[in-house]
Write a structure and sequence with these properties.
Layout lengths: L18 H11 L8 E6 L10 H12 L4 E7 L4 H11 L3 E5 L3 H9 L3 E4 L2 H9 L4 E5 L1 H7 L7 E5 L3 H4 L9
Parallel strand pairs: 1-2, 1-4, 2-3, 4-5, 5-6
Helix pairs in contact: 1-4, 2-3
Length: 174
Amino acid sequence: LNALGISRFRERVSWSVSRDSARKLRDRYLVGRRPVEKLVGLDVSSSASSRPSDRRLLSIARAVADQNDVRVLVFFDFGSRACANAIHESIGQRALLIETDDLPKMVALLEACHLVITANSDLLHLALSKGVPTTAILSPEDAARWVPPDVVNLAVWDVGQVEDKKSSLMALDG
């Protein structure tokens, strides 16, 4: 911070999204959601580290969307827009595209998810901080770097073994 000419803050910096604001955001983006519908977040955003191919991410989205009463919230950034659009073209209205350009929106929608699948540490940490069950798709090196110790509600898949693990998505209970 000193190198940038920014003085240190003595007070703790934090932010939050009020319950009412989060509800309004969910109501806005999840129009027509049925009470029995489960939401699965799939993060296809660009990553500096190993990430499954667009083809593998599409395969995961199809496996999730093939389940009854499940909608896929596809979190994407500018660099992954083509992948998100391909998922939407493939599974239609069962995919809801969410650009990762607004932190309060992302948090409110993550809170509504029954599961989040991500290969990006940003959404990994946000989902875990909100207590959402999360599957991280990471290389062993990235897992060692980004996965917090002793965390609950987390499964870690090796990026090279996604196809072998995909069948475990077939039972989204709870």
